[in-house]
Amino acid sequence: MTYGQNAAISIHPGDRRLEWLVVRTKPRQERAAICHLRHREVESYCPLYLEPKWNRKAPQVPVPLFTSYIFVRCIPELQLNAVSFCPGVAHPVRFDRRPATVGQDVIDGLKRREAAHGAVVPPEIEIGIKLGNKVMIMAGPLSGLEGIFRGYLRGRERANVLVEFLRQKSLVEVDTEDLAAARA
């Protein structure tokens, strides 16, 4: 790998000095940073998350799991400057002046969670919402209301939700794609 006309660094993928660093990117620059790091022949990884749709008509696209953070596999002593001064990168995360690292097992675990769909899928999408769980209605005329999930209807495309509105509890029918598990 070459960083200038006169400088050449050769790194073997099995080198024991390789570590996964945590790197902060500039806002919404995760993809740009990864692209520029690839040109510098530095391995990087940005885990993606399949976010529940906030709007029925919006496309469901993966977003970074950790907003403004990526993981970079490099030898800190040799490649930290190449990472630090890469377009899209704000700075490597540091603790006590040492770059923050994560183990290969953490990266492997994230990649396993992404494997089937190309992104980490929230449990309410992957396995469905469980009966009795709190949900938030994300779209439609009842958008913003919380309720209790009462079950799926018609092949899981619609669901019953018990909501309290004007001091009265009512069972309403909504599209399942308009539901998200309420955060406790």
Quick description:
With 184 residues, the chain is an alpha+beta fold. The protein contains four helices and 14 strands. The protein has two domains: 103 residues, NusG, N-terminal domain (Alpha-Beta Plaits), CATH 3.30.70; 57 residues, SH3 type barrels (Roll), CATH 2.30.30.30.
What does this structure look like?
A hairpin with an 8-residue loop joins strand 10 (134-137) and strand 11. This protein is an alpha+beta fold and 184 residues long. It is built from four helices and 14 strands. Mean pLDDT is 86; it is low at 1-8. It has two domains: 19-121, NusG, N-terminal domain (Alpha-Beta Plaits, 2-Layer Sandwich); 125-181, SH3 type barrels. It is elongated.
Provide keyphrases for this structure.
184 residues, alpha+beta, Alpha-Beta Plaits, SH3 type barrels, five-stranded antiparallel sheet, disordered N terminus
Major sheet details: 5 strands, antiparallel
CATH H level, superfamily name of the largest domain = NusG, N-terminal domain
Supply the number of structural domains. Answer: 2
Radius of gyration: 22 Å
Helix-strand sequence = EHEEEEHEEEEHHEEEEE
Are there runs of 5+ residues with pLDDT below 50, and where? 1-8
* Tally of strands: 14
Produce the secondary structure layout.
Layout: E1 19-25, H1 30-39, E2 43-45, E3 48-50, E4 62-64, E5 69-74, H2 76-84, E6 89-92, E7 94-95, E8 98-99, E9 101-102, H3 104-114, H4 123-126, E10 134-137, E11 146-153, E12 158-165, E13 168-175, E14 179-181
Antiparallel strand pairs: 1-5, 1-6, 1-9, 2-5, 3-4, 7-8, 10-11, 10-14, 11-12, 12-13
